[in-house]
Amino acid sequence: MQQRYLYNATVGTGFVTCPIGANTGAVLGMGDYGYVQSYTVKSPQRSLRPKDQVRLTAAIRQAGFNCPEEQGKMLNILLQSPATMDHNDPRTPFLAQALGALLVSVSPRLESLSFCPVGQESSKLSKLNAQTNGTTLRGNDYFFRHFLDRENSSPQETLPFLQHLRQVRFLVDADTRIHSWYNYQPYDLYGSLNLVRRLPAVKSIRVDAIMSTQSSSIEPPPRSGNYTSLTIRNSSVDYHHLVRVIESAKRLEEFTYAIGGRGSPDGSLSIFSTDHVFRALLLHADSLVHLDLDVEAEIPLAETFDPTLGQHFFGNGDDPSSRSRPAYQQEWADELQELQPEQVVQPSPCSLRGLTKLKNLSLGIHTLYYLSRGIGADQVDDASFAVVDHLPPNLEALCIYGYERGMKPQVKCLPGDVFDRQLEKLLAEKDTKLPRLSYTEGIDEIIENATTVKQSAIKDDDLWERETDDEWTDHEYD
Q1: CA–CA separation, 324 and 303 (whole Å)
Q2: Crossing angle, helix 143-153 and helix 92-105, to 10 degrees?
């Protein structure tokens, strides 16, 4: 018998647009929340045969929903008719979350999962303070979030779901009543990472078109995430958050961060500190094999190259959401006891040369020069410096953004022809000094730096659009 399956299924904003099938991939759209947190039980709009309702109740329970009140709400929303809902119906996100939880729970071999924001939870400290003060925090009925929370924190024998999940993609579900779709969207990256970082098989995380948000969840602890690949594209994220995300991985093999493809809502840009991000990456020097930073068009180059200016501009890099704060300590109290603090030794030298495992490197021309020369006490004097001598020893591919023959540096402290001379020397000596380097791009022909799209000149061709993979496939089964 032949049955049509959808390997990448979609649960839209409250509507089942197509079924999930061969349980290898799922795409879940959770709808527009606004301020809706709790589901209000309605009269059922559909009826099931008694034995089918028993089966549905059992499926809800097997998905880990053991609280009778939560079971009742899930059953009730599943008995609502999607045909009576529109995008603004308050039932919509709860139906999507309930369906998402059930679909994933019956897909034991799920390997890839994409989902939109699933709501925020109050911190443990907030709940504790409310209890102490005799007040009650408003609860929520984010069923799929609760499902992920339990699965992320429970041993395999307790909740045997998502044990094979390898690829996770966070989707942005823009509320166009508040944010124009063509702008970067505020996104709680910490909150999403905390939902999946402890899953045993998770390897790669990807997200696009986001910006930092002021209402962020508590950051994950350092070296607590099982993912080894992080990709953040077409986004504008403050460097404090990038550092925390990089530090959250136990072992990082691939890191990609690129701006562009979207506009800024108010014209402001996130701050990118090359030094702070690179020092975080150096913590993974023994594992990092792929690094792609396409952000140079918005790096404050004068402050980056001049330590005095940089000290005033970037400060000491302290994150406002410091890990010493009570909310962080309370949120991860149990986990922090399990995580033994590691004595991390910063690689020497503190330059690209210190990334001894790196094979693929993509950087802007100024950033390539700056990080090759080294930062802090390891910085090499310009007069005796050659980029070719300070690149990763195992480099196989090099891509340079923003270089054009004859260009002058955008910082006054560098000679006008320094980039031409450095790259000529690189091409002349790479076979001897970098024998593995077989591919170079961006030297003979310019690769433009990514840039945030200006509001006054927004064109469809300049905007990034997420590709979709919702093709039906034929699958035979007995």
Answers
A1: 28
A2: 40
What is the span of the domain harbouring residue 444? 352-457
Give a yes or no: residue 468 inside a domain. no
In a domain, 39, yes or no: yes
Domain end point (choices 139, 165, 191): 165
pLDDT in tens, 319-376: 555 788 999 999 999 898 887 666 556 656 799 999 999 999 999 999 999 999 999 8
Domain membership flag for residue 280: no
Residue/partner pairs of 152-156 with CB below 8 Å, 24 or more apart: 152/194, 152/195, 152/196, 152/197, 152/198, 152/199, 153/198, 154/64, 156/200
Residue 6 has pLDDT above 90, yes or no: no
**pLDDT at residue 443 is higher than 70:** yes
pTM above 0.85, yes or no: yes
Domains of the chain: total: 2
Segment 205-250, tens digit of pLDDT:
999 999 998 888 999 999 999 999 999 999 999 999 999 999 999 9
Domain annotation covers residue 219: no
Whole-angstrom distance, CA of residue 53 vs CA of residue 169: 33
